[in-house]
Specification:
By secondary structure, the chain is mainly α. It has two domains: 37 residues, no CATH class; 54 residues. 62% of the residues lie in helices and 11% in strands. It contains two helices and two strands, in the order ββαα. A two-stranded antiparallel ribbon has the order 1-2. The chain is rod-shaped and about 90 Å long.
Length: 92
């Protein structure tokens, strides 16, 4: 059944909607015989890859933003301790 805009919506074997216009009604069989792009296992692998990639990205952002602060703070603390030790030695 066509809607008022002349478009037919069909659900094919892969449970995806296919819009077929009246002009392309002859190609309806072609749309129904579309192949499945990924198997379920490949889809799960792709999701696992995206998850690992996203976790790596955010870990990199975290390390790039925190490590300089952490190293700078450690250097500053060491400098303060050395300065304090030097002042103590001068007072003796």
């Amino acid at each position: 059944m066509f809607n008022p805009h002349g478009c037919l919506f069909v659900v094919n074997k892969s449970k995806s909607f296919v819009a077929v216009f009246q002009k392309n009604l002859l190609s309806l069989g072609h749309h129904l015989k579309r192949h499945i792009m990924f198997t379920f296992e490949q889809y799960l692998g792709f999701l696992a890859f995206l998850t690992i990639l996203t976790m790596g990205f955010w870990l990199m952002i975290f390390l790039v933003s925190i490590l300089p602060y952490w190293i700078g703070g450690a250097l500053y603390e060491n400098w303060k301790l050395k300065r304090e030790a030097k002042r103590r030695n001068e007072m003796k």
